[in-house]
Design brief:
about 80% helix
Length: about 300
């Protein structure tokens, strides 16, 4: 036994985490996402499946760990996209302050309401996002251009707020927003890689330093970040991000959108199922406990009547 699990389970856990890093890094470069859409569900499944951690704790730690893991992945993807001229620096400059504010608010909200509800929120938001992207892959942009400064400040704040709450880098929400505002897909993906940095860096710092470590968190957890899991996935994700960038430049924009949507839908559906299962199980437990209490009261009443 190592870390409370068998050697076989440990080997499988490490293998899953390494594969998670490969997929997250590749998708970060290919689609401009920070890797959180892979990290969060994988960490959640590892924590609950192998370490038997309560889902309420597992989802919050998975979120914090995801933000930490996305820092090197986002740096690698952002550098590659910038070198290829796919980054809109003006958008980054105008969004930066509001994204930082959004991250702080998102972390505070997740800290107050954190738990299994984040699983449902992640699955629901991402499924809607994936369906919109999939069925509108060839649709014309909804707007001719990005809105004015006030509108962009609201957009950037909301993207950062939701992304930090869900443990995703910001690219998952940034790409469809920029596409809807007539920003070319490759430019939207490149810009979203830089956006991820403004979400995952401050988000990871806040999750690591401003929270107490849960009593039953997985071993290697500090604050709401599991450092051991991060050590497994960060190196391979960093190395695989440039590969995704190189592959993406040879793919049609419409195809990129569809790949993004399908991958997002599969992962989100799994997360939504996990969240619903937890709440259904919790409801059944409450019902069973209520029935037991009622039975005990009935038995006590019968004893009193007989006496």
């Amino acid at each position: 036994m190592i870390l409370g699990i068998t050697f076989v389970e440990l080997a499988i856990t490490i293998g899953v985490l390494l594969l998670c890093g490969v997929l997250a890094g590749f998708l970060a470069g290919l689609l401009g996402v920070g890797g959180g859409i892979i990290f969060v569900p994988c960490f959640y499944l590892v924590f609950t499946g192998f370490f038997k951690i309560d889902p309420n704790i597992a989802i919050v730690v998975a979120t914090g760990t995801s933000l930490l893991c996305m820092i090197p992945t986002s740096i690698s993807a952002a550098r590659s996209q910038y070198k290829k001229g796919n980054t809109d620096i003006e958008v980054i400059k105008s969004w930066s302050i509001f994204m930082l504010l959004g991250v702080v608010v998102g972390i505070l909200v997740s800290k107050v309401f954190g738990g299994a509800w984040l699983t449902l929120l992640f699955g629901s938001v991402m499924i809607l996002n994936s369906l919109n992207t999939l069925f509108r892959a060839k649709a014309k942009p909804a707007f001719a251009s990005l809105p004015g400064k006030f509108g962009q400040s609201i957009i950037s704040f909301c993207i950062a707020c939701f992304s930090s709450m869900l443990g995703i880098g910001g690219g998952t929400l940034t790409v469809p927003v920029l596409n809807a505002c007539s920003v070319p897909p490759h430019k939207a993906i490149g810009t979203s890689s830089a956006v991820s940095l403004f979400v995952c860096v401050p988000g990871a710092i806040l999750m690591l330093l401003t929270n107490e470590t849960p009593a039953h968190a997985p071993i290697g957890t500090y604050g709401l970040v599991n450092v051991l899991a991060a050590m497994c996935v960060v190196p391979v994700s960093y190395l695989c991000a440039p590969l995704g960038v190189n592959v993406g430049k040879n793919i049609k924009p419409t195809t990129l959108k569809r790949i993004f949507a399908i991958a997002l839908f599969i992962i989100s559906a799994r997360m939504l199922y996990s969240g619903l299962s937890y709440y259904l199980q919790d409801t059944q437990t409450v019902t069973a406990n209520t029935q037991v209490q009622e039975q005990v009261l009935d038995n006590n009443s019968s004893i009193v009547e007989n006496n």
